[in-house]
Write a structure and sequence with these properties.
434 Repressor (Amino-terminal Domain)
Length: 68
């Protein structure tokens, strides 16, 4: 089982945002952004802050991928 933030990356592209924009908005730290770019887990609190920026649900920014 692994985590994917591909939905967040697509949402950022659709909204013409870069990672630095999420840092400036106070949603992420540079370290958290690096973890997201590597598809590593971050805290639920950080995901909720990102959701607040995009006014979306957690399922709109990440998903769990079940491996065989």
């Amino acid at each position: 089982m692994r985590l994917s933030y591909n939905k967040l990356q697509k949402l950022m592209i659709d909204n013409q945002m870069k990672g630095v924009d999420l840092i400036r908005a106070g949603a992420l730290s540079p370290y958290a952004l690096k973890k997201i770019n590597k598809n590593e887990p971050v805290s639920l609190d950080l995901l909720m802050k990102v959701c607040k920026v995009f006014q979306c649900d957690i399922g709109d920014i990440c998903e769990v991928i079940l491996d065989d």
